[in-house]
Amino acid sequence: MPSTSPKLWVVATPLGNPGDLSPRAREVLAAVDVVLAEDTRRTGLLFQKCGVTARRFISFHDHNEDGRIPELLTMLQSGTTAALVSDAGMPLFADPGYRLVRACRDAGVHISVVPGPSAPLTALAASGIAPLPFTFLGFPPRKASEQEKFFAPFTTVATTLVFFERKDRLAETLAVAHGVLGHRELCVARELTKTHEEFIYGRLECHTAIPDDLLGEITVVIGPPEEASVSPREQVLAIIEEERADGGRTKDVAKRVQLRVRGWSVKDVYQLMQE
């Protein structure tokens, strides 16, 4: 049975609007002995905006998480209380903390969560795209070849996809996603809850229409496969013959064909051409 003390709190913080910090979160953050933060300076500025005074900050991020866990467990087991926060939103979602929570669980340290703002859920709620089921993917890998493998398992899985991406890589990532996933609904959300919050609605096959100068934090929502509108095999074969007549490498022809059909990825078209 888990103990009721000592305790690790997992606390959600605002995505951008300080008014989203809940009264319970404010109370916990002010009461714990230590706040574990990815960027102590950034979190300190957030606390100032929210009117919260922390007793002590400890740096806790991807690069020091494993090394810090034994020390933190010792502190917690000796009676210290701690709150884990991320730079913004709900901790552990594409942020450090999973290993610490697991270690606390295994050591019998009681864990409590103060829920609140979450970028994936906020973007999904405003997207107008089917919310159930959905899969949160975190950040895609950087290389196109790795991104293809990243998206490949979801070509036929009936789930909405939600992920984060950096503004300077968005265009390339959407191009790869289109090549793998085919025609789908798309919503690009940026600067959630902030002054310049924006939701861009469209289609994945029209990803080139998304401005390439977007600023701020970006969350992407891609709808599930549209099975009802999949182009029949015979139609795809006819389009393949038309595009082959214009010449080009097999992969380039497959890309041109994929732009003219629905529900087929470039990989699907390529495999059909090989057959």
UniProtKB/TrEMBL annotation:
Query: Keyword Endoplasmic reticulum, does the record have it?
Result: no
Domain of life, per UniProt, equals: Bacteria
Reaction(s) catalysed by this chain's protein: cytidine(1402) in 16S rRNA + S-adenosyl-L-methionine = 2'-O-methylcytidine(1402) in 16S rRNA + S-adenosyl-L-homocysteine + H(+)
Q: Which CDD domains match?
A: RsmI
Q: What is its main location?
A: cytoplasm
Family (UniProt): Belongs to the methyltransferase superfamily. RsmI family.
Its biological purpose is as follows: Catalyzes the 2'-O-methylation of the ribose of cytidine 1402 (C1402) in 16S rRNA.
Protein name, entry field:
Ribosomal RNA small subunit methyltransferase I
Q: Which organism is it from?
A: Nitratidesulfovibrio vulgaris (strain ATCC 29579 / DSM 644 / CCUG 34227 / NCIMB 8303 / VKM B-1760 / Hildenborough)
Q: What is the lineage of its organism?
A: Bacteria, Pseudomonadati, Thermodesulfobacteriota, Desulfovibrionia, Desulfovibrionales
